[in-house]
Amino acid sequence: MLLDSHDNLWIAQDDEGLSRILHISNHASNPVVEQASKSDLTAPQTHALLEDREGNIWVGTERGLDRFRETPFVHFRSTELRYFPSLIAADDGSIWIDSHGSSLMHVQNGVTTPVGIPVHSGPFVKRRNGDICFIDLICYELQCHGRDNQTHTKMPDKFWRTPH
């Protein structure tokens, strides 16, 4: 779920697509609920939601990434995305995308740039200094991408062992 800057509640509903409840704080007895049609999304299986600094709503689906602006949904088609991409907004307003089996992608000023080799999809985290980090389960390392540098830290073997 996502509560956007206009007080709308967005709900990613797994296999049921995307819904938006307008002005959720108004406590109306009959709230206005909008449902994205199947043609509005790259797939009805939705998962990740993000609002960027410009107020765009990004929706990660099983087959891609869609961007919603004040009007219709806008499909993000600058690269192929697989299986529920992870999303995070950087301090500079750009977006980082992690999609299973693809290179990490950095979207800035409408331009998508692949970063590095294909990685395993996983959640992002942002450090206090603004670096964007995730754990790549293909090469078992913590990768962090900052404004001027990248770090790759190999994770210890005990991190990956399952307790018996």
Descriptive key words:
mainly beta; four-stranded antiparallel sheet; Methylamine Dehydrogenase, Chain H; 164 residues; single chain
Please give a quick description of this structure.
By secondary structure, the protein is mainly beta. The chain has strands at 2-3, 9-12, 18-21, 33-35, 46-51, 57-61, 64-68, 73-76, 86-89, 95-98, 103-108, 111-118, 125-126, 132-136, 141-145, 150-154. It has one domain (2-119): Methylamine Dehydrogenase, Chain H (7 Propeller), CATH 2.130.10.10.
Enter the CATH topology name. Methylamine Dehydrogenase, Chain H
Query: What is the domain total for the residues?
Result: 1
CATH level 4 superfamily? YVTN repeat-like/Quinoprotein amine dehydrogenase
Distance between the termini: 35 Å
CATH class: Mainly Beta
CATH architecture assignment: 7 Propeller
Query: What spatial form do the alpha-carbon principal axes imply?
Result: globular
State the low-pLDDT regions, or none.
none
In spatial order, strands of the major sheet run 1-2-3-4
